[in-house]
């Protein structure tokens, strides 16, 4: 593994007034650009933030992992990052992940510190006791993993307070088919529920907040506007049900870059914060940014009479 020190230096942040506010439940708080003078930097996807909203860890789509601190001003707005060395995730033999096995996308950290990473090539989830030094352990693969599309599978990964893992693919396989949610608990995989498709957004990240709810980050690529739109839906998580759906935020294309990772935590005022990270796809015209929204404590009731929007069968998001 590479242990070369890499420190991020960022100073760009947006005030809440910099992005137009809307009546949606989640309101924009702040964002900051993130960069490191390291040729391997970029492509960040899976994302976790500590309960204090400061420490973070993220994985890239090239099998890399890095941790650091989110810097905030006196008002709690993001103003930059401090970042440690970029490290390489390992295979089961302790060596760096080989080509075609290194497309890490989802990230979940268990209460006991174990790290889980999902991959959308060679569909699987790796477990690490310490992702910085430990060799990977492959979790058993769910039967349904074999039917997932290449480069569109296990983008999202979340873990609950009891250590159960939840993952779902980026694509469901059909325009009207809901997304299967796979749960790994007590050594067994099940599909306890599905998530309905709404329009042409596709899942890219998930987290279970301190409120016990399931948060789903989705994106939509707009070819006409040359940018990404983002959406976050929240669900009440039951034993075998996922209901109480509410859309917390939905942005216009190019409001942010390609947001792929999501972390949910509670601030000192008791409000939920949704912190997200973008994947620049290793392209010079995109950017890595960390974006944060605030969800006030009192929200309107879940949405009623939700129905699937008209889907364009020629849309590349499907």
Q: What are the defining features of this structure?
A:
4-stranded antiparallel β-sheet; mainly beta; 318 residues; 5-stranded antiparallel β-sheet; single chain; 21 strands
If you had to describe this structure to a student in words, what would you say it looks like?
The protein has a single domain (25-295), classed as Neuraminidase (6 Propeller), CATH 2.120.10.30. It is mostly beta strands and 318 residues long. Helix content is 0%, strand content 42%. The chain starts with 26 loop residues before the first strand and ends in a 23-residue tail after the last strand. Residues 1-22 and 307-318 have low confidence and may be disordered. Strands 2, 3, 4, 5 and 6 form a five-stranded antiparallel sheet that branches.
What's a concise summary of this model?
With 318 residues, this protein is mainly β.
Structural class: mainly beta
Number of domain units: 1
Low-confidence stretches: 1-22, 307-318
List the total number of helices.
Answer: 0
What is the helix content?
Answer: under 10%
Amino-to-carboxy terminus distance: 37 Å
Radius of gyration: 18 Å
Overall shape: it is: globular
Question: Could you tell me the number of beta strands?
Answer: 21
- The name of the CATH superfamily reads TolB, C-terminal domain
Q: What is the top-level CATH class?
A: Mainly Beta
What CATH architecture label applies? 6 Propeller
* Rounded mean pLDDT score: 86
Biggest beta sheet attributes: 5 strands, antiparallel
Secondary-structure element order, N to C = EEEEEEEEEEEEEEEEEEEEE
Strand-residue proportion: 35-45%
């Amino acid at each position: 593994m590479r242990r070369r020190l890499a420190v991020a230096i960022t100073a760009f942040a947006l005030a809440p007034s910099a992005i137009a506010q809307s009546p949606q439940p989640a309101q924009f708080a702040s964002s900051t650009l993130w960069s490191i003078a390291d040729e391997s930097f970029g492509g960040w996807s899976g994302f976790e933030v500590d309960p204090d909203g400061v420490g973070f860890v993220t994985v890239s789509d090239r099998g890399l992992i890095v941790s650091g601190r989110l810097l905030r001003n006196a008002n709690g707005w993001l103003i930059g990052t401090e970042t440690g060395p970029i490290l390489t995730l390992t295979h089961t033999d302790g060596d760096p992940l080989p080509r075609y096995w290194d497309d890490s996308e989802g990230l979940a950290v268990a209460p006991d510190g174990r790290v889980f990473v999902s991959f959308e090539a060679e569909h699987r989830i790796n477990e690490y006791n310490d992702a910085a030094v430990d060799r990977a352990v492959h979790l058993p693969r769910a039967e349904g993993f074999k039917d997932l599309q290449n480069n569109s599978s296990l983008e999202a990964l979340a873990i609950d307070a009891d250590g159960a893992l939840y993952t779902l693919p980026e694509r469901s396989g059909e325009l009207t088919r809901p997304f299967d949610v796979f749960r790994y608990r007590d050594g067994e995989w099940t599909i306890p529920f599905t998530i309905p498709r709404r329009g042409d957004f596709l899942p890219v990240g998930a987290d279970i907040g301190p409120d016990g709810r399931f948060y789903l980050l989705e994106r939509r690529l707009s070819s006409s506007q040359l940018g990404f739109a983002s959406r976050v839906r929240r669900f009440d998580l039951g034993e075998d049900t996922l209901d109480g759906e509410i859309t917390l935020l939905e942005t216009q294309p190019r409001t942010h870059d390609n947001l792929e990772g999501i972390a949910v935590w509670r601030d000192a005022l008791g409000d939920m914060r949704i912190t997200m990270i973008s994947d620049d796809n290793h392209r010079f015209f995109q950017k890595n940014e960390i974006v944060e929204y605030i969800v006030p404590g009192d929200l309107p009731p879940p949405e009623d009479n939700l129905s699937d929007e008209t889907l364009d069968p020629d849309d590349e998001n499907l």
